[in-house]
């Protein structure tokens, strides 16, 4: 029965999954397309940063506090701008504001006599960002200065049946200034053109004829925007320091912080445990090992070993981004492919069930999941599935812990309705959920096997509704929303609007604190 329950939990998580390309494969493809350019650009940047001034040379002007903070934050990030039909611009910045970059675009259709293999447009450039102005905590504006080219724009040569055309730096040549956005910038506050572009490029996934878009509240990478031409750069983190964290938008009541390890390189290991320790939640980030991973299973197995503090799982189930036979929903976090893994340890009463979501971004792997005891009926049920469906990335380290500090003393099953316009309150008619293996309740309510629908029955509804107040941070999860992913995290106002519409029979599980206030609410999975 319990093995079936774990499989059912994975199946429910699989329904949560949004189909995307393989994380490792996607990154490999992008790196391969610009590998040669990227290496040269990085070499230019490093040589600029490490070069010592010649004797007698004038000392560089000291950086302002704003400039030093910005360049320290963005050094090591590789900015990329799609160019043409099959090209890219790459740009890196050092700690002094010197930048180097390259433009590479292949055009096989542009072929002719002497260049049958087509045309390759190239540009290698370097310059400096100056006059740094801080607009907000995560938004800066810089001037583009001293832009020079390693090859003269306009020069053309033919070699090996390829025509090489040297150009200006696409996306930056005509920029007097640029806006730079750091991780954590509020996307709603960014320029409309930039927000629209990254919405389609970074946060939209299409598969099996379904398109799903989820735009997070905060930017999970660095950005750069040419306001004059509306060119939009996004970045990959090639540095040795992590700058973003995978966090949960919904809190789970009863969790208290147990372990909080945030390392100097931004990797971390956090653990939250409730009273009684029947389950725990872990949120961690670690560096990709040297050499990377040879397969998706290797990535998942390594993530599980880190989650288990070094202990490997002999068997695990994994829903991978490459799987083609599952529903498109939330199998990605802010556009990044997510692996859903489940495994167990121990036997009989010592069995613990584990479920986690795993995301790789550049040089880092993020793992967020829970471990549940045989005797836990919260995380070891639908509530845990819901809890893993509302992950996002944030630049705020204060959000890594999932501990809410709220109490949880009672759990009830109820039919929920709305009365009036106050969305901070609901009205609930308490019911009883009877499982087929609960012989005492079956006998109490006079139920037989014929009364059970898929191993359960709902009894006790009498039309008497009591008023309940929702806690300020009450997380609400609803299945099959009109728009959005399976197991959707709802705000109180949005949920109240659904109740008022009266278009769905909302049977909900309510978790209450010692004052009778609702601190967590979810719609149980009903086949």
Keywords:
single chain, 527 residues, alpha+beta, Protein Transport Mog1p, Chain A, 3 domains, 8-stranded antiparallel β-barrel, 8-stranded antiparallel β-sheet, 9 helices, 29 strands, 18% helix, disordered N terminus
Dominant shape:
elongated
Low-pLDDT segments, ≥5 res: 1-58
Largest sheet: 8 strands, antiparallel, barrel
Number of domains: 3
- The strand line-up of the biggest sheet is 1-2-3-4-5-8-11-12
Helix content: 10-25%
Number of strands: 29
Total helical elements: 9
Please state the CA-atom Rg, rounded to the nearest Å: 27 Å
- Average pLDDT works out at 84
Q: State the distance separating the first and last CA atoms.
A: 17 Å
What structural class should be given to the helix and strand makeup?
Answer: alpha+beta
How much of the sequence is in beta strands? 35-45%
